Amino acid sequence: MSNPSTDPAFNIFTLPTHVESFISPFWETLQENNHFLLQRIKTRRSSIMRNVLGTVQNVLDTKQSPYRILYRSTNGTCLQIAVGETEKQTDLAWRWIEANLLPPLAVLEDNEKEEFVATKINSIVTRRDAGTDEISTDEKVRTASRSFRQTFNVPVTERLVNYYSCAYYTNRFTSQGWLYISENYVAFYSYLLGYETKLLVELKAVQDIRKEKSKRGVFSDAIKLVMKDKTEHFFSNLFKRDQVYDILVQLTGLAMQRVLKSTALEQSPGGDISIDIRDSDIDSTSDKDSLNTSGERSSNRGSTALPAAEIRKMMQPLKMDLAAQKRDERFRARFRLPSTEQLCMNVSAAHFIESEEGEEKRIQGRMCLSEAFLTFSSTDRGQYYEAVIPLYTIRRVEKLNDKIHPFSIKFVNWHQAHTQFHLSVTKQQYEEFSNRLTANLRKQIKYMKMLKKFLTTCPSELVVADKTNEEIDQSPGGLGLTFGFPGDPKKLKDKSKMKLWKKYFNEYGRNLTIVKTAQFGRLVRVGLPNRLRGEIWETCSGSIHQRFMNQGLYHRILEENKDKTSLSLEEIEKDLNRSLPEYSAYQTPQGIDSLRRVLSAYSWKDPELGYCQAMNIVTSAILIYMSEEQAFFTLSVLCDDMLPGYYSTSMYGALLDQIIFEHLLESTMPVLFNHFKKKDIQLSVACLPWFLSLYINSMPLLFAFRVLDCFFMDGPKILFQIGYVKFSILKINGDDLMKTSDDGAFINVLKKYFNSLHEPLYPDSENVKARTLTKFNELLLVAYREFSSISDEKIRELRQTHQLKVVAGIESFAKRSTIRNIDDTAGFSKEEMGILYDKFYNVLYYRQKQQQQQQTKGDRMDYSEFEKFIGSLASWAQFSRSDNNHHHVTGNDQDERQSKVGKTFMVRLFKKFDRGEQGSVNLQDAMIGLGSIIKGNHNDQISLFFELHDVDKDDYLNRDELLQFSETLLWIFRDTPDQDDGNHLNAVSTFLRNAFEYSEVKEEGSQEKFLSLASLRMLVLADEVLENFFEQEFSNSFQLVEKAVEKQRSLGREIFDSLFATGVKFANNRPKILSSTPSSTTTVTTTTTASTSSASNTSASISSQITKNDQQKSHTEQSSTMTSVASTPSPSNTTKTDSDDITVNSTTLNGNKKNESQQVQSTESKEEKNKEDDDDLAQFTKSHSNDSDDEDSNDEDDEEDGDVLEEVDRLLKEYGDDDEN
Q1: Of 572, 860, 1000, 1208, which residue has the fewest beta carbons closer than 10 angstroms?
Q2: DSSP string spanning 525-584?
Q3: Torsion angle of alpha carbons 355, 359, 365, 368, nearest 10°?
């Protein structure tokens, strides 16, 4: 059996779908047998009916492919098993069915046949379309995705997220149609009475997404997309506006990460960024749930040959995967869990605890289960209770027989603490939860053995055990154990704080099993005791879980990389002596070595991020209270989860939060903000260092550590709250900031305030406790009281809102910097270099994930990416999907040979561009290579082709190399229609004949002849067509233009003209003679359209219809109406050449020749008013359907390719060489 990924016969098969009946007024049967039917959609004779039908299909989203294959069972039911765009394509599948499915069906029982067919087709589709929408469980997704890909010509691997009915607003017209959202694109399609509107934009080009009201300002049902080039797209009538907005925000966020990863400046932290197809819910889905939603019992059976994990990953609709990914991200962020955790199940539950008065207190909340954790959080307003229970700390689970609460579970953890939960679920949910919990607990048993050793590194264990301070200090800790902790322990009341924490540990657990309550927050905000600060930090941040699961990783990384060097290590060495020099440890080798090891280990753990400035400040601070291993994992959580993008080349995370800070300042304190704006005071001058250093460099260390206490507990929101407090307090106390007039005065006011944080707030108060309060106490008080509205959710929403603007700015800066640093511009202007930059990095952006994991990374592209890059510049370099599959199928030998020629040429061109012979090309290489082509003269082009085909590098072309030279030219000319009697084919034929004739021997006595560069240049310049190609056509084929947005702007007047002209035609019964000129035929068959892509389809249709019409006429009439070709040997070839002549004009219409396009459209508009009578129109339309025209046009191209290669073979035979190359 052929490979489904390469055999073209399999390209049109789809998952079997039930259809009501094969008898339909919309379909006609072309071929049939006892089991299968090949049908084609009927073409309406009336243009009005075609337009109305197309409009109805657009409104109902029922657009169909023109061909389909049905399986007809004995009981009358039908399965649709294939859909195709061309008759040739569908016929391949039909022949395969006759050869491979009919014989087995002949011997099967009737009740077995349908299952056999469905299983076979399902197996083909699942193997061919792994990871695509073609095997989605949702039939609507399969249909919509197929329509989306066909309409907008996007790759089959592009997965559709969802589609919505909406209206697209242009300057003067609103089109009702469908909005498609895929992984990488937003698209809109509308078809209204013969006019279509198409829009396809890349998600990475979106700079802002806004919720809007409709144009009349009545309903909040619209979304506006603002692009990086400042264009805007307005979509209204969105009944699920918020859902669309959330999906777009999520997808553009993923696109943002990929943009940062693919730009020249930024290498994104945290590894590969992609839409991660993980769905934890799939494991709970029963076999019944995983069946095809349309009800085919055999579809799922056909896919069971694949691994279960692959089926789960492929069959899930992408919309569900994205929803699961978003849900999992929020779940992990909420409880600070490792990135490997996915939410399996969550249920409503209640927890009962005893209050200090001895009464039982009920806490209502939600219980969540993941692979390795069980969490519970209170949902009662004003009550804070949060438990994160690692499953490897649970010793025993009991189901309680409680009549009042029948669904209750009791846990006993490692520390012998008993916890009881009452689940508010049904019996079925209770059983499902219990089974999942049991399965996950069994997987975690192996980690329980690691607990005893790990807990010896936690000081809280010694505190609860009533160990002395000396014994506690023996456990692993930070540099403070050796060099002392900042501050006076007595003034900080360290001993009293330890007692309070001991009491809390006894009541609510410790380290891995601690429960966070309101009391926990109060203890953190008053300041942590020195010896427990490191452990509480890693408990709050979640890094303690990573340290437990990766014991020994830190020391292993250091050992494996001890003799290696990198750029990150060089940068680390520069900053070591600038890290908290005021702390004594960092003036000694011991402290410097400790800091070096932590930073180096992280740079090896995440080589893409490596090391960035300000990392040293934060790491040096946490090392005072943490061991090196603790600091290593805490730094990982900071960089990857809590502050993503802060410590990167572009600092996009810090820049983003800076913009959010200014936005919130404007909304909460507009007077102060307007003052800064009026005086042109840049907040980022002072505020950006606050965020990067987490205030460590902005205030005395004692208070900076208090801020870190709150930061690890409450997350990034505390950075904003502290920042606002500074402004609000200074504003209240003397309006100092309102007096500032420049950046210098602004910074001085802030420094003065920072240096006064230790001063008493009420120095003259009679109350002793009041006199101990400092300005820092006031700072925290106002932060938590006055700015409590700044929540994590609000920060997350603002980050999503503003992140696109930040990335657009970074991308623009990277583009300018890269272009400015190009050593050799190769003659390109800045605008041209900008276009090349965009196209180059656009290819890197869409680089496949498996390619990202190979050696070619960063700003270099391998051959496959180079092929796409050149294809984006020159149409002749674009390969079809079948070309890339390298298939060998009977009947396609010519296509295979032509594809092989093209691949060979492109590989040689790639090696030519690869100046450093590294197997990859960077932007500088691409510019130099393209510059020699686009900016070079005809001699440069001839020399390039000579060099690429001189395989043995002897400065001569032998017979085989000359043949390859000619075949390359034919491959480049394959889609170039001839305007003057097949002149490209004639030129290549003449060149090959003359090349063989003028070849010379290199040595006397040798029979083998060669062609030198000088002789090649002479032969090329002697032919007008080839001279023009090397002088203009080849260089001009590289189009340095931005990709145009395909859409239609105005339709009103054209719709009226079309309807009026059609109405006049039906009202007028006077017969008219069908004109025999090509222009008249064009007016009859051209479908009115205003979009660019429609013009292309129409032009192809024109050439096919003219050819078919002429074939029905006599040879004499053909000679009188079209130009005959003297060099073509037969009348049949004359017809093909004529059709090619017309195709040149239609292709020129699409070739950015504006004047000719306007002239053709003007002619069509005038001639459309003189349409023929109904009889002639019906007869013509019946024999020339639009759908078959496209297919026939493709057939003619294939025939022409065959004639080209036959001409080469004829020349070879003529000169005594019968072998094909």
Answers
A1: 1000
A2: HT---HHHHHHHHHHHHSHHHHHHHTTTHHHHHHHHTTT---HHHHHHHHHGGGS-TTSG
A3: 70
User: Could you tell me how far CA 154 lies from the centroid of its own chain?
Assistant: 13
Cα–Cα–Cα angle for 1034, 1039, 1042, rounded to 5 degrees: 175
pLDDT tens for 625-680 read 999 999 999 999 999 999 988 888 888 888 898 888 888 888 888 888 888 888 88
The C-alpha atoms of residue 1198 and residue 891 are separated, in whole angstroms, by 11
First-to-last alpha carbon distance for the chain, in angstroms, is 29
Torsion of CA 1142, 1146, 1151, 1157, to 10 degrees: 120
> How high is the pLDDT of residue 382?
79
Question: Residue for token digits 């690692």?
Answer: 390
Tell me: the pLDDT tens digits for 479-503? Answer: 999 999 999 999 899 999 999 999 9
User: Residue by residue, what is the 3-state secondary structure of 1184-1198?
Assistant: CCHHHHHHHHHHHHH
Residue whose pair of structure tokens reads 């035609």 in the numeric block? 1065
H or E stretch at 270: none
Quick one: tokens of 917? Answer: 């012979």
Q: Specify whether the CB–CB gap between 1102 and 1085 falls below 8 A.
A: yes
Segments of the chain with pLDDT less than 70: 1-11, 21-22, 43-64, 126-139, 171-172, 193-194, 217, 262-317, 355-358, 726, 728-734, 848-858, 880-895, 977-981, 1005, 1042-1221
Region of 856 please: left (phi>0), alpha (psi -120 to 50) or beta: beta
Burial of residue 446 (CB within 10 Å: 0-12, 13-18, 19+) is: exposed
Angle separating helix axes 1052-1067 and 47-60, nearest 10 degrees? 140
Determine phi and psi for 311, rounding to 5 degrees: -65, -45
Is residue 967 classed exposed, middle or buried when 0-12, 13-18 and 19+ CB atoms within 10 A define those classes?
buried
| Residue 245 contacts residue 264 (beta carbons within 8 Å) | no
Rounded Cα distance, 284 and 287, in Å: 10
Tokens in use for 1027?
A: 């001279």
Helix axes 701-714, 775-786, angle to 10 degrees: 20
In 371-407, where do the E strands start and end? 373-378, 385-390, 394-400
